[in-house]
Structure formats: C-alpha cells, structure tokens
Amino acid sequence: MRITTGCVAQPGTSQNYHTGSWRTGLKPRFLHVRCTACDLCPLACPDGCIYGNGRNTYYADLNYCKGCGICATVCPVDDIEMVPEEAPLLAATEEK
Amino acid sequence: MARRIMEGSRAVAEAVALCQPQVVAAYPITPQTHIVHELAQMVADGQVKMEFVNVESEHSAASVVLGASATGVRVFTSSSSQGLILMSEVLFNIAGMRLPVVLACVNRALSAPLNIWTDHQDSMAVRDAGILQFYSENAQEAADLTFLAYRVAEDHRVLLPAMVCLDGYVISHAWEVVDIPEAEQVDSYLPPFQPRYRLDPAHPLSMGMYAEPDKYIEARYMMQQAMERSVGIIQEAAHDFERAFGRPGPGLMEEYRTEDAETVLVAMGSIASTAKMVVDQRREAGERVGLLKLVAYRPFPGELLYQALKPARRVVVLDKAVSLGAQGPLGTELRALFLGRPRPPRISTFIVGLGGRDVTEAVINDALKKAGRGRHQGEFLDLRPDLELEGV
Questions:
Q1: Nearest by CB to A9, which of B99, B196, B209?
Q2: How far A16 CA lies from chain B's nearest CA (Å)?
Q3: Model confidence over B310-347: pLDDT tens digits?
Q4: CA angle, B189 then B193 then B198, to 5°
Q5: Is the ipTM of this complex over 0.90?
Q6: pLDDT by residue (tens digit) across B43-63?
Q7: What distance in Å separates the CA atoms of residue B123 and residue B65, rounded to the nearest whole number?
Q8: Are B278 and B265 in contact (CB under 8 A)?
Q9: Is B342 exposed, middle or buried (0-12, 13-18, 19+ CB in 10 A)?
Q10: Which residue of chain A comes nearest to B208, CA vs CA?
Q11: Strand spans (E) along A1-96
C-alpha cells in the first residue's frame, strides 16, 4: 500500500471500509408485516444504510449498520425489532 | 528594480501581488489589516487579477485558501494573534494535506490581557502545525521572504505551507526604503505553481484522508521528512535569490560579526537590528560579541546552528515568546542542541519584549551582563520593579 503526499486517494473509498464490524450485539429485523412505507427508518438512520425497495419493504445494509436501534424506535407501527447478531433475518430482501 | 519609501505592510502586499496568487482571503485584525487592505485596493483598482474573497472570520479565511489551494492555484492569507489562533484548526489541515499556502503573520501578543503590540507568541503557538516559519528583521526581508516562501513551499520536495512572520508595527507600520523587484525578476525566480494533486470535478479525488493507527504515524513521518528536506531547499532558494534579483536575499540564518566571537546573541525578528547596534558598540569597546539572527525557525536548522555556535564560549538567547510552565521556545531548542556534545558554551536564555515592551539596547546589554555570570534559564528581563504583582 502507498501513502500519497497529503493522503490523497480515489473518491468513495470510505465505502470499502465496512464499519458494520463495530456493531455490538444487536441488529434490526424488518418484519414486513405492518410496514406502511412511511420512510421514517431510512431518514432516521444515522449511517444512511437503510434502503427500501418501493414495495413496503426496507432492509439495512449490515456492512455499515451499527445496531443503534433508532430505526426500531422511530417506526410508528413497530415493524422493526432489534434481535441478537446471530438470529436469522426473515426476508431474502435483507441480503444485499 | 525600484527603491521606494513605503510601509512594511505595503512591501509585503506588493511582494504578494508580484507572486500573482489567484485567490486571497483574509479577515481584518490589527496589526495585519494593512496588508490585505492594500491587496484589496489593488484588486479594486484593477492593478492585479486575483479573486479577493471577503469572509466572516479567520477560520473561514484559512478554509477558503485551503479549498482554493486544493484546486491547484496559488493563494495567500494573513493574520495576527487571536486571528491566527482561530485559523489554527485549519492550518494543521492545510499542512497535513500538504498544500503550499503562504500566509503572513504580523506578530502580535495573545490575549488575555488584551494587547495589540508585537511579540512572537502567536506564531509560536502554531509552530508544531507543519508550517515553515520565517522571521523577518525589516520590511525588505519581509518582502524577500514572501518570494522565498512561495518558492520553497511549492517545491515538490517540500509541499508544506509557509508563514512569513513580521513584527507588528515595528515592521508592519514602519516606513522604510524597500527594493521591490521587477515582475520579470520574480517570474525568473518563482516558477508557476504546479500542484501534485488538484481537485477537479472531472477527475474526483479525496484529500487528507482518514488514517487509522496503522497509517497515521507514517503520514506524519512524511511531513517530518519534507521539513528536513526543506533546509536544503531554502539554501538553494537563497542561493538563486541573488542571481534573480541582483542582491543577496535571506536564508536560514544570518551571522553578524560572529567570526571570532566569544559571546553570540541569538534572536529572531526586528530585535536583531537593535542587537546588531549593541554588537557594534561592544566590538568598539574591544569585546568579541556577535549575533546569530535565526530566520528559519521551522525547519529548525539544528546542525547548522550547532556548527555556527559551537566555537562560542557564551550563547545568549533572546526569546520574544514564552511557553508558560517551561521556558522560551527558541532558548529551549537551542539548549537541546548541545546536550551530549563536548565542551558546550554556557547558554543563557531570556524572555524579552512581550506585548510590545521595547527591547532596547539597555535590555540587550543587561542580558549580556547577566550571561557573564550565573545560571539564566528563561529569565524574564526588564520587569518593572515599581509594579506590585498580586500573588507573586
């Protein structure tokens, strides 16, 4: 690896850094039962790592999710729950 | 070449204009204001082509020149005292991003107590930022160091910001005869700025990237190496100065009557002129006294200083700053040069002239007298005996 003068690098390299490894124990599980596609969870996510597919389903990109639980707290219909790291996720849409 | 009588600030402004920066941003603060006032006037009168950005603080001024420099253009800013301290958060970034910003620091004391007069505490407070620091003795040197600062800072073997320090009022507001070179001479001395990297929307990149413990120390090591290389680049630039301008220019340091000196004064900035008068008087009285005026404080030319001071029996350092709780920064670093070396001179260090207290011949003579006997480490000189100092 090379360090350039002034630490200059290609743009967007922070995406290669998977900060999801900092997560401590809990991850969000999107139940997709009562979701109304209100879009609060992606807006509230401090990491901007919650994405929707336009059909009332959201998923978190676990490469960046820190497990803070803000999405589960703001969800008006309690459709997100925080589960232990080792628990299975429900929908295939959550695998990015 | 034109020798004219002008204010020190005007001399610096004219030197900056000749270097043709494309972006200048600054915020007024006493005693620096005249420099940017003059530059703003030149822009308004259509005499120079540059973008003059009015900003709301020194932090913004430094941020504007950081961004402009990153796009690959030559830039200038200046400040004093509290303004420089407000800039400092950005200055460390400018240095770490290796942007050759040149700034003038019109030296002024730091608050509190509020004081607008000169000493070196403001520039000393940012001495560890990774900025080259040059201290000028007079208006001519302040102008000449501006050319040298751009040349050294922009050299690809250096790529660090540079600060030209000039004492507030004593240089910035005093009128002197100054030799301002012709544009062609400056062009022959200072090549156009060729950035190593530049921001360009068509070819995006990130500068000053995040570095974890596995890389940060290497990035700082690279800056340290650049600082050490810059000693030679400054010598090169000083050598080429005479060829370009037809007269000698400033370099790392100036030795004044030190050939056979038993006692050598060491000082930076305008007090060197007074010290030269004292040296002349002492020489006339048959005493072997000389002066070493240090111009480049960063990089600190340690080995060259050691060689220059080694033959002396006594070294007397006059610091116009104090590291509260330790001693004067210059005195401390000079003393360290001789640690573990054979037969070091007796080194006496004094704090003088804070907050614009005149450093007169009497003060320098007092330092010389004291240095002849006893141990003096960071001793304050010229304290008023008639003032009652509560708690002291």
A1: B209
A2: 13
A3: 999 999 999 999 999 999 999 999 999 999 999 999 99
A4: 170
A5: no
A6: 999 999 999 999 999 999 999
A7: 18
A8: yes
A9: exposed
A10: A7
A11: 26-30, 50-52, 58-60, 80-84
